[in-house]
Amino acid sequence: MTIVYISVAIVAIAIVVLIFYIIKTLKSVQGVVEQLGNTSSAVEKQLQGITTEVDHLMKTTNRLAEDLEGKSESLNGLFQTADELGKMSEKVNHSLQTITNRASVEAERQAPQVSQFVQWGNAAIDLYAKWQKRKQS
């Protein structure tokens, strides 16, 4: 019977030791759970800060996009005017080219008449010079 009492005592001591280690383990787990709670609170605060910053950034981005859109629309008129100015410049250049070509053709066509007029002018100047010479002598 003493063996039964000794066995029961050993089992009781083993259960007490087991309970002691279970309690120790549970206390460690409790510490870890508290740290996780603190960490999750810190992460939540950081996420709130980030959310606020992202919200501010989104509002700023939207304002910039609206401003850019407004400026882009105002520039459309300027680009349209520049396009029209370019087209007008092309028309003026074409007109000048046409006038230059016509003048060149007309000058070539009337070149013999101009040459003959210049010859008659030279002859007239020579005659006048000779007449002046005779008059002085």
Global morphology: rod-shaped
The major sheet is characterized as: none
Strand content bin: under 5%
Total helix count? 1
Mean of all residue-level pLDDT scores: 90
Report the helical percentage: over 70%
Question: Runs with pLDDT <50, length 5+?
Answer: none
The sequence of SSEs as H and E is H
Total number of β-strand segments? 0
How far is the first residue's CA from the last residue's CA?
183 Å
Pfam families: DUF948
Keywords: Membrane, Transmembrane, Transmembrane helix
InterPro entries: UPF0478
Transmembrane segments: 6-23
Supply the key terms.
137 residues, mainly alpha, transmembrane helix, UPF0478
Describe the overall structure.
It is a single chain. With 137 residues, the chain is mostly helical. Helices cover 99% and strands 0% of the residues. It is built from 1 helix and no strands. The model has no long low-confidence stretch (mean pLDDT 90). InterPro entries: UPF0478 (IPR009293). Keywords: Membrane, Transmembrane, Transmembrane helix. The chain crosses the membrane at residues 6-23.
Quick structural gist:
The chain is mainly alpha-helical and 137 residues long. The chain is 99% helix and 0% strand. It has a domain of 92 residues.
Element layout with pairings:
Blueprint: H1 2-136
